[in-house]
Specification:
This protein is α/β, with parallel strands linked by helices. It has a single domain, classed as Ribonuclease Z/Hydroxyacylglutathione hydrolase-like (Metallo-beta-lactamase, Chain A, 4-Layer Sandwich). The protein has a 9-stranded mixed beta sheet with strand order 1-16-15-2-3-4-5-6-7. The protein has a 7-stranded mixed beta sheet with strand order 8-9-10-11-12-13-14, with helices on one face. Strand 5, helix 3 and strand 6 form a beta-alpha-beta unit. The longest helix has 11 residues. The radius of gyration is 19 Å and the shape is globular. The termini are close together. 45% of the residues are buried. The structure holds zinc ion (ZN) (2 copies). The site of one zinc ion has 5 residues, from loops. One zinc ion (ZN) binds next to loops.
C-alpha cells in the first residue's frame, strides 16, 4: 500500500497543488478491493460530507479506466447516489459499500450513460436475505423519470415476481419503486441533509439538472452534463466542493470520425478552459472533475483560467468535506 501524503490543512496544500494538481490532502485508500459486506470503508466522521466518485467517464462508449457517470454522497448516515452509469454497482462494491444500502438515486438527466446501470442496482441490490434492500427504491429525476422507471419495473416483472412471490420470497417492500419527476428547488430534506436540484444547460436535452447537497454547513455541488451555466454559478456559489464536467475539444476533434457530430457534442458540454472560468467565479475550496477525461491536457487547459485547488477525474476518489478537505485515491 503506497501512502502518497498525509492529510494536511487546505492552506498548506495550495503550494503543493501549484506543482501537482492531482494531489490534494491525499492518502491512499486503506484497503484494496473489499468483498461486499466484509471490509467497509472508514466510517464517515461526524459533521462530514463524504463524496465518492464511482464513475468519472463521459459518454456511452465503454471506458475501462473511467466507468459511467455516478457519484455517491454520504452524510448524516444517509447514502445518496447521483446518476447510475455503467459500472456503478461494481464501483460501489469496490468501495466497500453494500449495494443494497443504496436506495436513493438522483438523476441529472436521462442520457443512457447516466442511467444504464439502474436495473442492476434496483434488482441485485434487493437480492439477499440479509444484505438485500428492505425499503423501496426511490428515484428523483427530470420529466420522463417516472415513465422510465415504470417501464423498467415492467421489463423485469418476471424476475421480480419469481423472487418476491414464488422462490426466495425476498422483501416485497424492497422491490417497490417510488419515482418523482422533479422541478428546480429543494427535493429532499431529511435529518439535516438537504438536496437542491437546479437547472443546467444541456439543450436540446431538457430539462437537465445539477444538484447541491448541504449538511451541517458543508456542501457539494454536481454539475451534471452542461455547457457553461449561469444558473449553476448561482446555485453553486459558496459551495465547498464543486464537481464539474468537462470536454477536451482538441482531443475530441482529433479522435473524430464525423466532425459535424463531434462539434454538436462539444457544444453540449463545457470545455476545460470554460470550466476553469466557472471554478474561478464559484471559488470552491476544491474543484473536482467528473464526466471528463482523466488527462494532463484537461488540467493544463483549466489552469489557463483557474489557479485554485483542483482534482482531476478519477474513479473511486473519496473526498471528505469537513473542517479540512481530505482526498483519498484508490489503491487500485
Ligand atoms: Zn453524459
Ligand atoms: Zn448528457
Amino acid at each position: 500500500m503506497h501512502k502518497r501524503s498525509v492529510a494536511v490543512s487546505v492552506v498548506a496544500c495550495i503550494a503543493l497543488l501549484a506543482v501537482y494538481s492531482g494531489s490534494f490532502n491525499t492518502t491512499a485508500a486503506s484497503q484494496s478491493v473489499p468483498a461486499q459486506g466484509l471490509v467497509g470503508p472508514p466510517a464517515v466522521p461526524p459533521d462530514t460530507l463524504r463524496v465518492t466518485l464511482l464513475g468519472t467517464g463521459g459518454g456511452p462508449p465503454v471506458n475501462l479506466r473511467q466507468f459511467g457517470a455516478s457519484t455517491l454522497v454520504e452524510a448524516g448516515g444517509k447514502r445518496l447516489l447521483f446518476d447510475c452509469g455503467r459500472g456503478t454497482t461494481i464501483r460501489l462494491t469496490q468501495a466497500g459499500i453494500p449495494i443494497g444500502s443504496v436506495s436513493r438515486l438522483f438523476l441529472t438527466h436521462l442520457h443512457s450513460d447516466h442511467v444504464v446501470q439502474i436495473p442492476d442496482l434496483f434488482l441485485a441490490g434487493w437480492v439477499g436475505t440479509a444484505a438485500g434492500r428492505k425499503v423501496p427504491f426511490e428515484v428523483w429525476g427530470p420529466d420522463g423519470t417516472r415513465d422510465m422507471m415504470t417501464a423498467l419495473e415492467r421489463a423485469f416483472a418476471f424476475d421480480i415476481h419469481i423472487r418476491r412471490d414464488v422462490d426466495e420470497k425476498f422483501s416485497a417492500e424492497g422491490i417497490k419503486m417510488q419515482s418523482h419527476d422533479i422541478k428546480e428547488g429543494v427535493i429532499f430534506d431529511e435529518d439535516g441533509v438537504r438536496v437542491t436540484a437546479f437547472l443546467v444547460d444541456h439543450a436540446p436535452i431538457t430539462p437537465a439538472f445539477g444538484y447541491r447537497v448541504d449538511y451541517r454547513g458543508r456542501s457539494v455541488a454536481l454539475s451534471g452534463d452542461t455547457r457553461v451555466s449561469e444558473n449553476l454559478v448561482k446555485f453553486a456559489t459558496g459551495v465547498d466542493v464543486l464537481i464539474h464536467e468537462a470536454i477536451d475539444p482538441v482531443a475530441s476533434r482529433a479522435a473524430s470520425t464525423n466532425l459535424a457530430v463531434t462539434e454538436l457534442v462539444i457544444a453540449h458540454h463545457t470545455t476545460a478552459e470554460q470550466a476553469g472560468e466557472v471554478f474561478a467565479r464559484v471559488k470552491p475550496r476544491l474543484a473536482v472533475y467528473s464526466h471528463a477525461p482523466n488527462s494532463e491536457a484537461i488540467i493544463t487547459q483549466t489552469r489557463k483560467n483557474y489557479s485554485g485547488a483542483l482534482q482531476g477525474a478519477e474513479d473511486l476518489l473519496t473526498i471528505d468535506i469537513g473542517e479540512q478537505i481530505d482526498v483519498r485515491h484508490s489503491a487500485q
